[in-house]
Amino acid sequence: MNFRSTEIDDVEINLTSLIDVVFLLLIFFMVTTTFEKESKIKIDLPTADSSRPETQENILELIIDSKGRYYLDKKEVINSKPETLFLAMKETLNHRKDTPSLIISSDANAGYQYVITAMDIAGRVGLTNFSLATSQSERKK
After folding, report:
1. Mean pLDDT, to the nearest integer, of 25-41?
2. Got the DSSP string for the chain?
3. Is residue 39 included in any domain, yes or no?
4. Is 121 a domain residue?
5. Does position 41 have pLDDT exceeding 50, yes or no?
6. pLDDT, average across residues 32-48
7. What is the CATH number of the domain that holds 127?
8. Which of 22, 52, 68, 112 is the most exposed place for a label (fewest CB within 10 A)?
9. Which tens digits make up the pLDDT trace of 10-27?
10. What confidence category does residue 45 fall into, taking pLDDT thresholds of 50, 70 and 90?
């Protein structure tokens, strides 16, 4: 008796088309997804509890009011343009012997851009030591 040997065929599943479909779905979802850039978070900025440091002799004070006007050493800068503030700071520094520390006091209702502009110009003028002034809050017991 001659028995035939039966060969068992390996069953293979072709995954190529399945992978193509998954990649097409991935590309479809990536292209059709939208991202919102709006932030809906409301924050209340904190106030500082620490007291003001002792007065120093070599301080340059920059005040920004609620309308965005700049006051350099209690003298109003002509306008709110960055070039004007740059020239005013440069002229004030030319009349001083040492490089002063800059204190930026901004009104709570002043635009954030005015403070950033002041910090940028202070860096361009060469003032690397500056601080932001805050009002002292009443502590809750």
Report:
1. 74
2. --PPPPPPPPP----HHHHHHHHHHHHHHHHH---------------B-SPPPPP-SSEEEEEE-TT--EEETTEE-S-S-HHHHHHHHHHHHHT-SSPPEEEEEE-TTS-HHHHHHHHHHHHHHT---EEEE-PBPPPP-
3. no
4. yes
5. no
6. 58
7. 3.30.420.270
8. 112
9. 778 888 888 999 999 999
10. very low
Instruction: Give residues with Cβ within 8 angstroms of 109, minimum separation 6.
Output: 66
Is 97 inside any structural domain? Answer: yes
Asked whether residue 120 is domain-assigned, the answer is: yes
Average pLDDT score over residue span 62-79: 87
Q: Give the CB-side neighbour count of residue 22, counting CA atoms within 13 A.
A: 5
For the chain, the domain total comes to 1
Predicted pLDDT at 1: 62
Q: Tell me which residue has tokens 């002041």.
A: 118
Which is nearest to 53 in space by CA: 61, 45, 41?
A: 61
Q: Of 83, 59, 54, which Cα lies nearest the Cα of 72?
A: 59
- How far apart are alpha carbons 60 and 58 in whole angstroms? 7
